[in-house]
Amino acid sequence: MNDSISIQFFGAARCVTGSKYLLRTPGNTTLIDCGLFQGLKELRQRNWEPLPSDPAKIDQVILTHAHIDHTGYLPRLHKEGFDGPVYCTPSTA
Questions:
Q1: C-alpha span between 93 and 86 (Å, rounded)
Q2: CA gap 44, 37 in Å, rounded
Q3: Residue 22: which H helix or E strand, with range?
Q4: Nearest to 36 by CA among 86, 78, 85, 73
């Protein structure tokens, strides 16, 4: 059994938009934030690239706050197979 913990950065790395962090722990895969890229065209075009991890294998999403660069990718994530819960504060919901 793999006991490792890993984190992958799918957005907001080397830029300040498109926040997505995949946290893998034994038995659980959590996407922290699910944002759209905004700004320059080359950033926005990233919104159409497939997520580097299978959305159907993500157990849950945690949203840190309601800005579109942290939440706007949720409809696409669902369309691509994610069907788990989304956790956030009442204000973010």
A1: 9
A2: 5
A3: strand 20-25
A4: 73
* Cβ proximity of 72 and 35 under 8 Å: yes
| Burial of residue 86 (number of CB atoms within 10 Å: 0-12, 13-18, 19+) | middle
- Give residue limits of the domains in the chain: 6-87
Select from 33, 54, 37 the least CA-distant residue to 46: 37
How do residues 46-90 score in pLDDT, each as one tens digit?
999 999 999 999 999 999 999 999 999 999 999 999 999 999 999
The CATH architecture annotation of domain 6-87 reads 4-Layer Sandwich (3.60)
Mean pLDDT of 20-34: 97
Q: Is the pTM of this model over 0.85?
A: yes
Nearest alpha carbon to residue 6 among 20, 19, 24: 24
